[in-house]
Amino acid sequence: MMGSHATPLTMLERGEGCYVWGTNGKRYLDFLAGIAVNSLGHAHPALVDAVSSQVATLAHVSNYFATPPQIELAERLKRITGAGERGRVYFGNSGAEAMEAAFKLARLNNDGGKRRRILALTNAFHGRTMGALSLTGKAALRDPFAPLLDGVEHIDSTIEALEAAMDDTVAAVVFEPIKGEAGVVDLPEGFIVRARELTREHGALLILDEIQTGVGRTGTWFTYQQFDIEPDAVTIAKGIAGGMPISALVTFGEASELFKRGHHGSTFGGNPLATAAANAVLGEIEASGLIGNAEQRGTQLRELIREMDSPLVDEVRGRGLLIGVGLTEPVANRVSAAALDAGLIVNAANEYSVRIAPPLIVGDVEIDEFGRLFSTALEAAQ
Question: Exactly one of 31, 125, 191, 252 is catalytic; which is it?
């Protein structure tokens, strides 16, 4: 394995529901879900059946052809995002690819070359390819690869900073509704609505990165729907296909007319295998009411963590089943390591934040077990 990754925490060989098992036979309660990817948990019958059936029928055809699962998914995404009939869908293979497409979309909103600035937020994460990394506001990730793409300006996550930076030279404003990799950090109250107002006023695109926050995880299909606004474009990945690699850029209204033939493409993007998986996952989320479960269980988990009354817990952030536990001391790695040792998978997003993102199918049994294991991990890390 390339040295770009840390040493794996352990070796996993199978999963079922909210649990995974290591090659040593140890069982773990998975409250990270592959970083908010495994929406239906592990080995869900709906996903297994869809992938098994599709791979036995037609797995890949290239982008010279369309397939029924691809068209079905595009129509489904236009419906659940609210993009409607004027909406368009581009399929990629990863969140970073969706952000690359979004970056190129922003470049096309140039008003004859007058708009060259793209505003993004400090401490944001949008991916590690060069375009997505240019939007990412983390110096530690960016600096080794400078120079990155020009025209991107990172501003503080405040309404005042956004108002000061906006003018008619801005092509797009890009941000996550909740900054996931920063430790599940909420944006200031009113920020998203004000961003929509300012981008409309100045002719800039509002591009929302819902790669981690979308697909029901925060209690609605997409987080922006909780603020009664409509973006010009939204990027989607992670939880859309329960572990099969796929992403999408969905455009709204006039933004749908920016990409022309030949502007962008992908060999694997939107192939029948991945789109069939996504249709199965999104269909199951809808049929089983898992968006409501995300909201309900998220509230339950937040109350449970606060009731632990641990001196290490400073605050509990996020929405639905995307939860950030802010710590009073820089011991997040110790907490996550102690959790793993106890049989619980969570993630240290940074030294002061633990990220919790269980599958959307989580229920009372798993939450009770989480309470015992996470409390043990907090005590061990003190």
Answer: 125
How would you class 218 by CB atoms within 10 Å of its CB: exposed for 0-12, middle for 13-18, buried for 19 or more?
A: buried
335 neighbors 348 (Cβ within 8 angstroms): yes
The helix/strand/coil state of 100 is helix
30, 179, 222, 238: which is the annotated catalytic residue? 238
352: its two tokens: 């002061």
Is residue 209 part of the annotated active site? The answer reads yes
**Taking phi first (over 0 means left), then psi (-120 to 50 degrees means alpha), and beta for anything else, what does residue 46 get?**
alpha
44 backbone φψ class: left, alpha, beta (φ>0; ψ -120 to 50): beta
Give Cα 74 distance to the centre of its chain: 19
82-117: pLDDT as tens digits: 999 999 999 999 999 999 999 999 999 999 999 999
Structure tokens at 122: 């400090």
Please check whether residue 40 is in contact with residue 281, taking contact to mean a CB–CB distance below 8 angstroms.
yes
Question: Which residues are paired to 81 by β-bridges?
Answer: none
Q: What pLDDT score does 1 carry?
A: 85
- Considering the entire predicted model, what is its pTM? 0.97
**Alpha-carbon distances, residue 262 vs 63, 233, 259, 269 (angstroms):** 12, 19, 8, 15
Name the active-site residue from 209, 222, 370, 374: 209
